[in-house]
Fold this sequence. Notes:
Endonuclease I-creI; 17% strand
Amino acid sequence: MEGLQKILSLKTSLNLGLSDTLKTAFSIIVPINRSLIQDQKILDPYWLAGFTSGEGCFRISIFKSATKLGEAVSLIFKISQHTRDEQLIKSFVEYFGCDINEKIIPF
């Protein structure tokens, strides 16, 4: 039972938390405090590559359009995080300088 309570404490502190059913069944569970990262700087491109492998993606979409060819292409680099990790996302913007042609594609 102690191990289950530790697992539920971790789950409570994740983005979606516990379901209503689990909250009712385990009302004594206390969330584990997660510290906020304040001054996160991206110093190592290998760290960023690993982070992107787990939390991001490159996406290519081909769709119908009013162009001469009748199709268009959309290229997207996406990393998603919880709002509490706003500083981390800002560090990505700072690292890349938001320039896809000179920074993200070569990366």
